[in-house]
């Protein structure tokens, strides 16, 4: 899917009247931890804080879609943070699957194959850039 069409569908679903982030975010984490129970130990136990962080990240990513430089800055920060948490590519895959299936349930009739493709493409791009930035960042001194 062409990048502009992808952006349009991602933004449209975020701006949908059906999109209720207060419902989506807890449902997403519940699904993620069901399909990837080992991920539960990686994340903070304070779910309110965890939910606030992903809400902020989603907001910043959506606002930065039109600026590659700004988007890369956000993804660099997120990539480094997730590297320190030892998030793997497998975790990213389970994140994407849980995210899109939860989003499909929330959006209902507004969800389509094109919307799923756009979100999957966008989230894979995000994961790839986060991994790239995390790998290019020095791990720090080893004693």
Structure description:
This protein has 143 residues and is mostly helical. It has one domain (3-39, 46-135): Globins (Globin-like), CATH 1.10.490. It is 73% helix and 0% strand. α4 (68-84) crosses α6. It is globular. Residues 139-143 have low confidence and may be disordered.
List the helices and strands and how they pair.
Layout: H1 3-14, H2 21-35, H3 47-63, H4 68-84, H5 89-107, H6 113-136
Domain Globin: 1-135
Family: Belongs to the globin family.
InterPro entries: Globin, Globin-like_sf, Globin/Proto, Mb-like_M
CATH hierarchy class name: Mainly Alpha
The unreliable regions are: 139-143
Strand content: under 5%
Helix-strand topology string: HHHHHH
**How many domain regions?**
1
Number of helices: 6
> Based on CA inertia axes, which overall geometry fits?
globular
What is the makeup of the main sheet?
none
State the share of residues found in helices, binned by percent.
Answer: over 70%
CATH superfamily: Globins
């Amino acid at each position: 899917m062409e990048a502009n069409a992808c952006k349009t569908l991602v933004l449209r679903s975020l701006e949908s009247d059906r999109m209720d982030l207060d419902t989506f975010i807890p449902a997403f984490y519940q699904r993620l931890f069901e399909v990837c129970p080992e991920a539960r130990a990686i994340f903070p136990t304070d779910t309110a804080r965890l939910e606030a962080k992903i809400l902020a990240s989603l907001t910043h990513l959506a606002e930065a879609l039109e600026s590659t430089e700004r988007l890369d800055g956000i993804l660099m920060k997120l990539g480094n943070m997730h590297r320190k948490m030892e998030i793997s590519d497998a975790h990213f895959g389970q994140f994407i699957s849980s995210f899109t299936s939860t989003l499909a349930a929330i959006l209902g009739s507004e969800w389509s194959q094109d919307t799923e493709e756009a979100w999957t493409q966008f989230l894979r791009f995000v994961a790839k850039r986060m991994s790239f930035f995390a790998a290019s960042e020095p791990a720090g001194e080893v004693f």
